[in-house]
Amino acid sequence: MNNLKLYGFELSGHSHRASVFLSLLGLKAKIIQVDLASGEHKQADFLAKNSFGQVPVLEDNGQFIADSNAILLYLATTYDPSRQWYPESPQQQAEIQRFLSTAAGPVAFGPARARIKHVFNHELDLVQAHQVSEQILTALNAHLAKRDWLAAKHATIADVANYSYIAHAPEGGIDLNLYPNVQAWLNRFEQLPGFVAMPKTYVALQTKL
Ligand SMILES: N[C@@H](CCC(=O)N[C@@H](CS)C(=O)NCC(=O)O)C(=O)O
């Protein structure tokens, strides 16, 4: 019996990345919502869990793991004996790392930022976020033309890391219809046993995205 807790925020794609992976692995975890609006993540109690003051943070038997991609790596190497999600071959690991960097780079600075601007109205450059989004979605659409998954012949943590913010890109005013191979990949991901969706924001609901 594990003792997993996930500190997150329900509209955070980074948090969803961690919670959907827990579910895909069939792991039960206590989900603890951190009140970002009131600044709970900048209080001493939370900073003791993650000095960067960001969600998500995973707690496993009193040990804290911060950063969504670090959480994916930790869960895959600790709780997936089959090593489907993070295979042992150095070549496959390098390919997965390439897409973890994609998630932390252009996906974070493109679709995720555009959504933050639309949904939370933060001071961000929407034009730049849309340019970055177009570049990375065009590249991913080409990458997925002849393959089902980003980094292997099956789903890996590379797919988990990139799914949430790309699936919710329309909430940032991005038209995914322009990227049919990306859409097919999102649909494939949503069919995985254990998949759970991130709630749509009021922006998505207003525009029926
Ligand atoms: N590199 C981090 C980024 C996490 C992140 O940006 N979290 C946001 C919510 S989506 C957050 O906590 N923002 C509050 C802040 O930065 O003050 C990860 O992958 O976990």
Automatic annotation (TrEMBL):
UniProt GO BP: glutathione metabolic process
Annotated ranges, domain GST C-terminal: 89-209
Domain GST N-terminal as annotated: residue spans: 2-83
SUPFAM superfamilies, A to Z: GST C-terminal domain-like, Thioredoxin-like
PROSITE patterns for the chain: GST_CTER, GST_NTER
Cited CDD domains: GST_C_7 (cd03206), GST_N_4 (cd03056)
Alphabetized InterPro entries for the sequence: Glutathione-S-Trfase_C-like, Glutathione-S-Trfase_C_sf, Glutathione_S-Trfase, Glutathione_S-Trfase_N, GST_C, Thioredoxin-like_sf
Alphabetized UniProt keyword annotations: Transferase
Entries under Pfam families matching the protein: GST_C (PF00043), GST_N (PF02798)
Keyword match Transferase: yes
UniProt GO MF annotations: glutathione transferase activity
Assembly information from the UniProt record: Homodimer.
Matching PANTHER family: GLUTATHIONE S TRANSFERASE D10, ISOFORM A-RELATED
Family per similarity comment: Belongs to the GST superfamily.
Name assigned to this protein: Glutathione S-transferase domain-containing protein
